[in-house]
Amino acid sequence: MRPLLFATAIAQLVIAVVDITTVPRETSANIVPGYQARIRFTHEELYHDLARRGVFWEVTREYSCDFMTGVALKLGSDSDLMKLAQSKAFNIIPVYSHSLPDPIDPQILYGPYQPPSQPQDTQSSHVMTGVDKLHAQGTLGQGIKIGIIDSGIDYTHPALGGKFGPGNKVIGGYDFVGDAYRGSSGPAPVPDNDPLDQCNGHGTHVAGIIAASPSNPFGISGVAHEASINSYRVFGCSGTVSDDVIIDALIRAYEDKNDIITFSLSSVGAWSTSNVGVVASRIADKGRVVVASAGIRELLVLGILGARGRGKV
């Protein structure tokens, strides 16, 4: 069992996609201990190459879809990483952890936000961005499926339909982690089919911006309030999430045939060659709209996004 001790001791998590010389541009503070992932060739080819080089590894996730084949690995020691780096078949980069977006503090509204005589769709953000004009033309997101990768959604909120499943506003999704998950240092993920979040609220906040029903007494209307929502929960009630979980969610959102996929990450690991950036770009190449947040934490440097990538918004 000695290799398992090594597996918990090293401090590298990487995905084999781009040249490792690009890694120093990222901060090393949020590298997740002990993992590796890669996105080219077949699983069997990689495992054969690792065995031939005498690398000790543990498979934590395998990925297989029509735009990539990949695997997340936990390596046994730093020397295993060095052996892997000697391979000419693929290159490696770190996989990063991402902080949970700041929770949305509850706010109590004690009365209607607008007088009954005032038009419903006149909130300032809609007027400034032209959403009110689209709504006036009848463009309300009809027939569009939007996947939200975030902290989950409190779909019991009346403005989000109050229910979950086909025929409702939030039609589906998946919880990849469970409430207790805190990242690589905490309890193991406990996935299930219910992405309900009642402990953070950020994903609910995002869902409200996108799809809140206008039939509420406070004059709040989602930009595309007739769209259908899929929720993919990648954060527990606290802590972080690593790239390998987010990649799982991106693939699931793609395979669920969402027209638009959006995610919010509090991270400076934002280069277009990051793991999440590469996968998001491949999804965009398939004709989907992939949207990443910008500036969800005020301390981030101007120009640093959640995860850049070719073809992403």
From TrEMBL:
<dbReference type="Pfam" id="PF00082">
    <property type="entry name" value="Peptidase_S8"/>
</dbReference>
<dbReference type="GO" id="GO:0004252">
    <property type="term" value="F:serine-type endopeptidase activity"/>
</dbReference>
<dbReference type="GO" id="GO:0006508">
    <property type="term" value="P:proteolysis"/>
</dbReference>
<keyword id="KW-0720">Serine protease</keyword>
<keyword id="KW-0378">Hydrolase</keyword>
<dbReference type="InterPro" id="IPR036852">
    <property type="entry name" value="Peptidase_S8/S53_dom_sf"/>
</dbReference>
<keyword id="KW-0732">Signal</keyword>
<dbReference type="InterPro" id="IPR050131">
    <property type="entry name" value="Peptidase_S8_subtilisin-like"/>
</dbReference>
<dbReference type="InterPro" id="IPR015500">
    <property type="entry name" value="Peptidase_S8_subtilisin-rel"/>
</dbReference>
<dbReference type="InterPro" id="IPR023827">
    <property type="entry name" value="Peptidase_S8_Asp-AS"/>
</dbReference>
<dbReference type="InterPro" id="IPR022398">
    <property type="entry name" value="Peptidase_S8_His-AS"/>
</dbReference>
<comment type="similarity">
    <text>Belongs to the peptidase S8 family.</text>
</comment>
<feature type="signal peptide">
    <location>
        <begin position="1"/>
        <end position="16"/>
    </location>
</feature>
<keyword id="KW-0645">Protease</keyword>
<dbReference type="GO" id="GO:0005615">
    <property type="term" value="C:extracellular space"/>
</dbReference>
<feature type="domain" description="Peptidase S8/S53">
    <location>
        <begin position="141"/>
        <end position="295"/>
    </location>
</feature>
<protein>
    <submittedName>
        <fullName>Subtilisin-like protein</fullName>
    </submittedName>
</protein>
<dbReference type="InterPro" id="IPR000209">
    <property type="entry name" value="Peptidase_S8/S53_dom"/>
</dbReference>
